[in-house]
């Protein structure tokens, strides 16, 4: 077992024997004194700690922006970490130039994070539009500028980009001063490292299994470094989403980004791509996994909410055995699961909805983006001749567990889509839930909001069959 | 030449306290704080914690060598709680260990026994119980009592405004290192190095000259590091001196959120009277300020609420009373606007409610009552060079307000669920510390023999661009290239007895001082040039673009040569200068005077769209005409304006501090306390610079910019109200901020 963690940080190979659950943020700031990367919150909510994480895929290195405060160093082994220092060269990059010319930085504390995120944008995107550039920095919070000048800087930066690349994007970006020259040598260097890949310690019954770490590092980062951990890293270039018969099978360590961008998912669930912009931020989605979302069991998990409506089944493995369980049977009570400690979620499967199935997802939070839902809800239904012949409605934030509104669904099954029926269904839904008051809203608000979201489902899917004025 | 601060920022090279390389052996401090909002401390047992490996020291109240007192205006706040606790987050012990993790771990082993008492969270309850920070303050003008009869319409009501977390991205922190002679050098993230120095001196029982405070820059301050940076610095200094080792103390985000004070929540009662023409005749208002557990800057903030309680309007009869109420929350503190926003929000609410009664658009009342030249404020000062109407009219015409309004009305007729709203928000904000003596600043300028220049002032760079502005002042007085000039850190050994960089006055005061210092040197340089060029009359000497001119003609003498010649002639190339703006005063007892050097005016138009099904909203556009005076740096001033407005909108909309009945902050993380993000930024944001032909008292006739635009954000609240009103015209909504999606939805349907 190789227990030394080796990776490339900017243009240097680094090897360390530090505890694998130490956050990359602490490592680069405290051990390497790369202080351009800042700590603003330690919970993935500010983006001041953003770095690039580059992973070898074939002969190419694919870079993503990630929150280094939530990134275990054990998961960096064999990869390329780029901090703001690693983007500097003798000349300023067009991104840096744009921030200066538009005064898009005031105190400067957030700025490195923005520069790094936008660099990941120019490295990755196929849509050189303002909107997708903004999406790349939606996980970066600036308290000084109100983001107005930052938006101007983004527009300015886009004028420096010729979206047609000559094949090798990295070379092009180097020629245009977006990247320093050493980026060219990274693929070869990383290949060199791969023979020495860190394998972690063999841990029999680890206290913690870390996947994307976006929940664990918020909730338990201090405990993680005191005990044994093992990884189900979200990385790796194996195919994670496949179709088998009438099912889409998805590996538990699939990230939200991979899910959102997957051709298979976009083919069978076209609504999700846009809606999943409401999940965290791009750097969070780049790390957060489906498995983590399910196991974390937050009553307001977004992926869980969607998967519940989609009749998802789970496959656990333990000692070579496989156990199947429908997702809607999984949550027993608040954060209490039908799962043994050492069971690992391997895959989930979602039946491919029939052609006539309709889907909608709603989420309301205090801030529309990068916020946890006050209430969320998904609906999947099939209608024949105006009659509902299949329906699942899920709701989050209104009970101790993510919930399928079984009685509401039952009531609507085989009924007509009509204002009266929706109105009656809402009454039933109100009986099925028992929200509590907390930081995300009072119980009264959550009740009212669920009602509004159910209306929103029907108004969105059947604008001609229900009257919004009568429902509200 | 680029603004080098910005170049360093984009390269990640700017250093903040937590970034400086610490000397070997540096220890880390963690602060243990009360988990109980109100109670008596029975005992604090540190024994087990002290035994833990890596722990080097634990200090509690009794270990403080000097006075256990950090109160500024009123001496009512302990550094470490000795016998009672008054809020959750109140420091009890400082744990010092080899790493932060060890220190925190050890803090969990400290046993604090507290006898719990009932906490008070609500300022009105505190008022009823007589729990006041100081006696109520009253500002009055004319005679309110005598004039109610003359009012055709009288409207009364209450208004609640929520607090606001500063959320400077860099949390509070300090680094302290013992130095010879029993002193200590502190690097602090503070807006007020002198306050840190004084506080540390008092706590340590040392003379001020034994304490050197140095400030590189802040990762945001917004008022949160004006008074409340001192305790962390004092703790680090105390630990450093006790252990004779360097000590760093950086607050983790969650602790910062729980332990530090915020913008004051206010609860207010108003009564407004208008005549038939819509002129405001009478305005009576009582403010209940939620001060938290101790005074901090609350008294001064309370005053500014009163100063700005009539915003940009002339009201002939005013009676404004303000009560600073003591509650069991962390001591609330300065925040951009300094009580002004809370005052202005209430009169805007009063106008809104009066308009609602009359069934007219509030902007008709706003417009009718705008200040005119010579109008008197309730504190006796007269509006001079008044730009209230000019900015209003300019906004109306530049942005074609009637057309915007018409578009919205048409949209709202066609759209059933999404409703749009628009509101105008004029502002008038007085510039100067209202505590008159604080209006002073000093600068130290060195011209080095190679022609480069170093400038030190009391100003703190926290993103507002004061360093760049001061470089511009120096470059302009000497007429040299700006890249010759460097800002030194702000340091108490170079500039002593400085005022906080606050009240938007940083560039005004320190820029002036720098200008004076440069002028001193310039005069000496002219003499030196005359000597060098063998000219009789130094009056005719000028420097233009680094060339020395005589009688408007260039000479062969250039800046570098002039400097080395002056040095060889034994001319001092350094100057220390002092500036105090003339003509301002305020009689606290009479509540009359001329507290402000000048006022800043402007008008904003804010447009929103509200989804009345889901209760969510979007800020569509912000359009502003603002009086910048003669801006020294338009890019900086524009960026300041934008940032301030968005912070103001945040305060009015999504930024919500929720406490439970035990006084515990529920929104104590960035996952629950939400500030505007990039998607919340409006699609359209226009800032017009109002033509202002007048001279101001500030440096180069510029005007202060830090705070005033914050209050444009209030317009967002009323724009949302207007949209809600168009969805439910029959409803009368309560005026409670912030207007979160939750409040909005519940207001519409409950
Ligand atoms: C800033 C921020 C924003 C967020 N926004 C959202 C949001 O909008 N919506 C939302 O739903 N969530 C959000 N989250 C929560 C989080 O990102 C998700 O829950 C995510 O899906 C968790 O996945 P992970 O891989 O990072 O989990 P981890 O933190 O790695 O793990 C979470 C838990 O699952 C267990 N686990 C993970 N994988 C497996 C497996 N295969 N088998 C067994 N156990 C496993 C872990 O042991 C751990 O107990 C946010 C988090 C942050 C920090
Ligand atoms: S420190 Fe805020 S996101 Fe990592
Ligand atoms: S510039 Fe200060 S937080 Fe962005």
Structure characterization notes:
The complex is a heterodimer of chains A (472) and B (750). By secondary structure, chain A is an alpha+beta fold. Chain A is built from 19 helices and 18 strands. Chain A has a 5-stranded mixed β-sheet. Chain A has a 5-stranded antiparallel β-sheet with strand order 8-9-14-10-11, with helices on one face. A 4-stranded antiparallel β-sheet of chain A has the order 15-16-17-18, sandwiched between helices. Chain B folds into 3 domains: 4-118 and 172-250, Aldehyde Oxidoreductase, domain 3 (Alpha-Beta Complex), CATH 3.90.1170; 266-434 and 588-749, 2-Layer Sandwich (Aldehyde Oxidoreductase, domain 4); 440-579, Aldehyde oxidase/xanthine dehydrogenase, molybdopterin binding domain (Aldehyde Oxidoreductase, domain 4). The termini of chain B are far apart. At the A-B interface, helix 2, helix 3, helix 5 and helix 18 of A face helix 1, helix 17 and helix 19 of B. The site of one FE2/S2 (inorganic) cluster (FES) has 12 residues of chain A, from loops.
For the record, the count of structural domains of chain B works out to 3
Number of helices of chain A: 19
**Which topology of the largest domain in chain B does CATH recognise?**
Aldehyde Oxidoreductase, domain 4
> In which range does the helix fraction of chain A lie?
25-40%
Alpha-carbon distance between the two ends of chain A: 62 Å
Count of separate DSSP helical elements of chain B: 19
**What is the number of strand segments of chain A?**
18
CATH architecture of the largest domain in chain B: 2-Layer Sandwich
Q: Segments of chain B where pLDDT lies below 50 for 5+ residues?
A: none
Strand order of the largest sheet of chain B: 3-5-1-12-9-10-11-20
Quaternary organisation: heterodimer
Q: Please write the CATH class name of the largest domain in chain B.
A: Alpha Beta
């Amino acid at each position: 077992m190789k227990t030394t963690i080796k990776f490339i940080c900017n243009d240097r190979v680094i090897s360390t024997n530090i505890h694998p659950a130490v956050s990359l943020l602490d490592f680069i700031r405290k051990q390497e004194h790369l202080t351009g990367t800042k700590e603003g919150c330690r919970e993935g909510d500010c983006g001041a700690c953003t770095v690039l994480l580059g992973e070898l895929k074939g002969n190419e290195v694919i870079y993503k922006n990630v929150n280094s405060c939530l990134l275990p160093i054990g998961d960096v082994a064999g990869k390329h970490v780029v901090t703001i220092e690693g983007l500097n060269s003798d000349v300023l990059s067009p991104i840096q130039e744009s921030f200066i010319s538009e005064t898009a930085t005031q105190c400067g504390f957030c700025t490195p994070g923005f520069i790094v995120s936008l660099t990941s944008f120019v490295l990755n995107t196929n849509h050189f539009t303002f909107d997708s550039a903004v999406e790349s920095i939606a996980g970066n919070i600036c308290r000084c500028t109100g983001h107005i000048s930052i938006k101007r800087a983004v527009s300015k930066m886009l004028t420096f980009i010729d979206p047609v690349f000559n094949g090798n994007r990295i070379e092009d970006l180097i020629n245009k001063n977006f990247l320093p020259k050493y980026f060219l040598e990274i693929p070869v260097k990383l290949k060199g490292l791969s023979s020495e890949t860190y394998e972690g310690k063999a841990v029999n019954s680890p206290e913690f299994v870390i996947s994307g770490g976006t929940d664990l590092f918020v909730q338990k980062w201090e405990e993680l470094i005191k005990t044994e951990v093992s990884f189900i890293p979200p990385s790796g270039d194996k195919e994670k989403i496949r179709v088998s018969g009438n099912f889409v099978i998805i590996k538990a360590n699939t990230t939200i980004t991979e899910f959102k961008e997957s051709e298979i998912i976009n083919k069978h669930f076209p609504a999700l791509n846009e809606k999943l912009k409401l999940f965290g931020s791009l750097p969070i989605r780049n790390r957060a996994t489906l498995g983590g979302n399910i196991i974390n069991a937050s009553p307001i998990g977004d992926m869980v909410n969607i998967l519940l409506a989609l009749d998802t089944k789970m496959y656990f493995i333990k000692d070579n055995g496989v156990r199947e369980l429908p997702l809607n049977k999984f949550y027993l009570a608040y954060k209490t699961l039908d799962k043994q400690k050492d069971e690992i979620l391997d895959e989930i499967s979602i039946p491919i909805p029939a052609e006539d199935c309709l889907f909608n997802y709603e989420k309301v939070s205090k801030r529309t983006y990068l916020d946890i839902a006050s209430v969320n809800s998904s609906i999947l239904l099939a209608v024949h001749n105006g009659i509902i012949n299949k329906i699942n409605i899920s709701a989050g934030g209104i009970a101790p567990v993510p919930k399928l509104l079984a009685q509401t669904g039952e009531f609507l099954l085989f009924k007509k889509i009509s204002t009266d029926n929706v109105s009656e269904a809402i009454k039933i839904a109100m009986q099925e839930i028992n929200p509590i008051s907390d930081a995300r809203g009072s119980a009264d608000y959550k009740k009212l909001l669920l009602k509004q979201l159910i209306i929103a489902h029907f108004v969105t899917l059947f604008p001609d069959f229900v009257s919004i004025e009568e429902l509200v | 030449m680029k603004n080098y601060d910005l170049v360093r920022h984009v390269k990640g090279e700017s250093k903040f306290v937590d970034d400086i390389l610490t000397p070997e052996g540096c220890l880390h401090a963690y602060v243990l704080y009360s988990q109980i909002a109100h109670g008596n401390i029975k005992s604090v047992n540190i024994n087990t914690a002290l035994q833990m490996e890596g722990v080097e020291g634990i200090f509690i109240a009794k270990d403080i060598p000097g006075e256990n007192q950090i109160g500024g205006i009123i001496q009512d706040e302990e550094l470490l709680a000795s016998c009672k606790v008054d809020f959750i987050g109140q420091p009890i012990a400082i744990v010092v260990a080899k790493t932060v993790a060890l220190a925190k771990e050890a803090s969990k082993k400290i046993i604090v026994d507290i006898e719990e008492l009932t906490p008070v969270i609500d300022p009105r309850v505190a008022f009823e119980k007589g729990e006041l920070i100081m006696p109520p303050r009253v500002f009055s003008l004319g005679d309110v009592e005598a004039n109610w009869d003359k009012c055709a319409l009288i409207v009364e009501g209450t208004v609640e405004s929520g607090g606001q977390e500063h959320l400077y991205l860099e949390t509070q922190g300090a680094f302290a290192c013992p130095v010879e002679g029993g002193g200590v050098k502190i690097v602090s993230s503070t807006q007020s190095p002198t306050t840190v120095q004084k506080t540390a001196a008092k706590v340590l029982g040392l003379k001020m000259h034994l304490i050197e405070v140095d400030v590189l820059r802040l990762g945001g301050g917004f008022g949160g590091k004006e008074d409340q940076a001192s305790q962390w610095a004092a703790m680090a200094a105390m630990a450093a001196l006790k252990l004779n080792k360097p000590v760093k103390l950086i607050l983790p985000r969650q602790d910062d959120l729980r332990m530090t004070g915020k913008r004051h929540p206010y609860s207010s009662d108003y009564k407004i009277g208008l005549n038939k023409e819509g002129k405001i005749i009478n305005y009576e208002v009582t403010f209940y300020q939620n001060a938290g557990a101790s005074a901090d800057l609350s008294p001064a903030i309370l005053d500014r609420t009163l100063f700005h309680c009539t915003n940009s309007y002339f009201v002939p009869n005013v009676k404004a009373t303000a009560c600073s109420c003591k509650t069991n929350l962390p001591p609330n503190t300065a925040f951009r606007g300094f009580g002004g926003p809370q005052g202005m929000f209430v009169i805007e609410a009063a106008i809104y409610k009066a308009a609602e009664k009359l069934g007219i658009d509030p902007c008709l009342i706003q417009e009718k009552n705008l200040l005119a030249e010579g109008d008197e404020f309730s504190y006796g000062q007269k509006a001079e060079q008044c730009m209230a109407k000019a900015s209003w009219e300019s906004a109306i015409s530049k942005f074609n307000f009637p057309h915007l309004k018409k578009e919205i009305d048409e949209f709202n007729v066609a759209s059933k669920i999404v409703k749009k709203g628009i509101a105008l928000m004029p502002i008038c904000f007085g510039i100067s510390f209202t505590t008159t003596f604080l209006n002073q600043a000093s600068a130290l300028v060195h011209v080095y023999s190679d022609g480069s220049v170093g400038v030190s002032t009391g100003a703190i760079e926290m993103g507002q661009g004061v360093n760049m502005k001061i470089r511009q002042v120096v470059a302009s007085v000497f007429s040299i290239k700006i890249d010759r000039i460097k800002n030194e850190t702000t340091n108490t050994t170079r500039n002593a007895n400085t005022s906080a960089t606050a009240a938007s006055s940083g560039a005004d005061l320190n820029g002036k001082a720098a200008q004076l210092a440069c002028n001193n040197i310039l005069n000496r340089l002219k003499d030196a040039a005359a000597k060098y060029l063998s000219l009789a009359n130094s009056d005719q000497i000028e420097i233009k673009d680094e060339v020395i001119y005589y009688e408007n003609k260039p000479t062969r003498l250039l800046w570098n040569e002039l400097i080395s010649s002056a040095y060889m002639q034994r001319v001092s190339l350094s100057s220390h200068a002092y500036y105090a703006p003339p003509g301002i005063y305020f009689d606290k007892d009479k509540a009359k005077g001329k507290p402000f050097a000048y006022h800043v005016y402007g008008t904003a138009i804010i447009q929103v769209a509200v989804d009345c099904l889901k209760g969510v909203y979007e800020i569509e556009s912000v359009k502003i005409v603002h009086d910048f005076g003669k801006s020294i740096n338009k890019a900086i001033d524009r960026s300041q304006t934008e940032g301030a407005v968005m912070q103001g909108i945040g305060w009015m909309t999504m930024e919500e501090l929720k406490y439970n009945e035990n006084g515990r902050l529920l929104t104590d993380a960035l996952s629950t306390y939400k500030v505007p993000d990039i998607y919340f930024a409006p699609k359209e944001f226009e800032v017009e610079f109002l033509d202002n032909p007048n001279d101001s008292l500030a440096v180069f006739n510029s005007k202060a910019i830090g705070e005033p635009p914050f209050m444009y954000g209030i317009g967002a609240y009323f724009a949302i109200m207007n949209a809600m009103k168009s969805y439910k015209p029959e409803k009368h909504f309560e005026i409670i901020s912030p207007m979160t999606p939750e409040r909005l939805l519940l207001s519409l349907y409950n």
